């Protein structure tokens, strides 16, 4: 009887541990976007996105923890204007030939109750890495009807960074601001 109770308790603990393990998700590139915007002389806002991106997510709902890794192909920057794209790729700004990839790697999910509040981590641009906190404007998990009801999680995240920390200082002499708003829209499918 004692052995049976021990086996039942061990099986219950194992089942709980398995349920609490983080799940792995692959970023869906068709529903994941990385964009940035910067003020243009107090008149308009310049915006661009990166068309090629990849990454993964680990998420533990019960443990309210996770990890995110997103890589951006810097040569895929797209402002909608070919000449501006070339300038963004140039050594004056992103130096995409020398530094072809930018990356965000999170180290912490911060919750307020059951609501994801922010994701903190390290952002690497032009070979330089600095901490960044992305505020979660939205976050949700759902059964994706187009993917045989596979769980999909994601949200809209934003941060304002000082671009000069990463050596992106073009236009400072002309009065362009240091602050750049970065928006990550991520959806990832459970594997």
TrEMBL record:
Gene3D superfamilies, alphabetized: Lipid/polyisoprenoid-binding, YceI-like
Domain of life: Bacteria
Domain Lipid/polyisoprenoid-binding YceI-like: 24-189
Keywords: Signal
Record flagged with keyword Zinc: no
Organism: Comamonas terrae
Keyword Amino-acid biosynthesis listed: no
Leader sequence residues: 1-20
PANTHER family associated with the record: PERIPLASMIC PROTEIN, PROTEIN YCEI
Name by which UniProt lists this protein: YceI family protein
């Amino acid at each position: 009887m004692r052995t049976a109770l021990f086996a039942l308790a061990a099986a219950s603990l194992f089942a709980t541990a398995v349920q609490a393990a983080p799940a792995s998700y692959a970023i869906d590139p068709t529903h994941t976007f990385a964009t940035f915007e910067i003020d243009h002389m107090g008149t308009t806002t310049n915006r661009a996105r990166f068309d090629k991106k990849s990454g993964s997510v680990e998420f533990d709902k019960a443990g309210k923890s996770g990890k995110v890794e997103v890589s951006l192909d810097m040569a895929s920057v797209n402002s909608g204007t070919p000449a501006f794209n070339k300038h963004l790729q140039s050594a004056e700004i992103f130096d995409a030939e020398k530094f072809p990839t930018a990356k965000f790697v999170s180290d912490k999910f911060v919750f307020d109750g059951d609501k994801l509040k922010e994701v903190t981590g390290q952002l690497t641009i032009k070979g330089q890495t600095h901490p960044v906190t992305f505020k979660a404007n939205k976050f949700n998990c759902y059964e994706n009807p187009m993917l045989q009801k596979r769980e999909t999680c994601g949200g809209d995240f934003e941060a304002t960074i000082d671009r000069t920390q990463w050596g992106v200082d073009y236009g400072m002499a002309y009065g362009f601001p240091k602050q750049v708003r970065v928006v990550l829209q991520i959806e990832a499918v459970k594997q």
